[in-house]
């Protein structure tokens, strides 16, 4: 946890919690990067001078070796700025100007300030009964978009049979998103994508890793990029190509809310949708991601249809560790623009329980 305070005693909070096994760095590495940044830059001087106008320019943070640390600093700075101005981070990330799609030539209609964004939720492919029950339960909650992780090799055949049962149970009106986490080879991906077409998935995420996404060629189903975006060069090529129609944005591995917003605006200008999701962060990281999801939806949702794109920000199981820290943007099956300043997360119960004083 990172706390930045201004001269008037207001605080802004950020979180650096790279997910083990899914990030190129460890929490210890991120913590060391934050300590070095605080020692070198001086948080007080930075807040009062370099980041005193909005939208802020975070180009000189010099935290490229630790995306999670950079994400924490950006979150804390924007949270503090929100508290100082009495506005939400979503209003700091987007200045209200329309984003024009190159494909339609029309500006995005967006969502109204008091509108909401649908959530997608995960369901497991452990077995048919569990998967169907999870999908049906989500539908009863009002969730209209569900997502599952796909295996490779022989496991894919099992997953496909389970997915057929799920599709039969929920019908065609529920959107199904699928994620292979870059586990397939190019030949395997082409075969599997052809077989998945019968399910009419909204998209399949990361069928192959990294730049191999650019080599797949024409796909039987829409594709999305996630981990491939962690490499800035590959991200730029994917966003500007026809290889994917959706980009999946996670603030922690991408280095912060500002970078995600920039990618989303660039993608939207080319007719692509953005889906904001989490990396199983705690409440502070999750709340910041919620504000990003709202900002992008407000700016770009009207570009690809009348309804905003569902975001992957449903309350995940790890948040139960902080059951007494609420995420005000989450309401049932929707993400709502709650009346908050900054990201709206008060980490005091978390800090009281840990015995920490809140500063690094």
Describe this structure in words.
It is a single chain. This protein is an alpha/beta fold and 360 residues long. It folds into two domains: 2-88, Enolase-like, domain 1 (2-Layer Sandwich), CATH 3.30.390; 92-354, TIM Barrel. It is 39% helix and 11% strand. The protein contains twelve helices and twelve strands. The chain has helices at residues 27-41, 43-50, 67-85, 89-93, 128-141, 154-170, 186-196, 232-239, 251-254, 257-269, 283-300, 348-354, and strands spanning 2-5, 11-14, 117-118, 120-122, 145-149, 175-179, 203-205, 223-225, 246-249, 273-276, 330-331, 334-335. The strands form three sheets. Strands 4-5-6-7-8-9-10 form a seven-stranded parallel sheet. Strands 3-12-11 form a three-stranded antiparallel sheet, covered by helices on one side. Strands 1-2 form a two-stranded antiparallel ribbon. Strand 11 and strand 12 form a beta hairpin. Helix 1 crosses helix 3 and helix 10 (257-269) packs parallel to helix 11 (283-300). The chain is globular and about 60 Å long. The model is unreliable at 102-109 (pLDDT under 50).
Write the layout of secondary structure elements.
Elements: E1 2-5, E2 11-14, H1 27-41, H2 43-50, H3 67-85, H4 89-93, E3 117-118, E4 120-122, H5 128-141, E5 145-149, H6 154-170, E6 175-179, H7 186-196, E7 203-205, E8 223-225, H8 232-239, E9 246-249, H9 251-254, H10 257-269, E10 273-276, H11 283-300, E11 330-331, E12 334-335, H12 348-354
Parallel strand pairs: 4-5, 5-6, 6-7, 7-8, 8-9, 9-10
Antiparallel strand pairs: 1-2, 3-12, 11-12
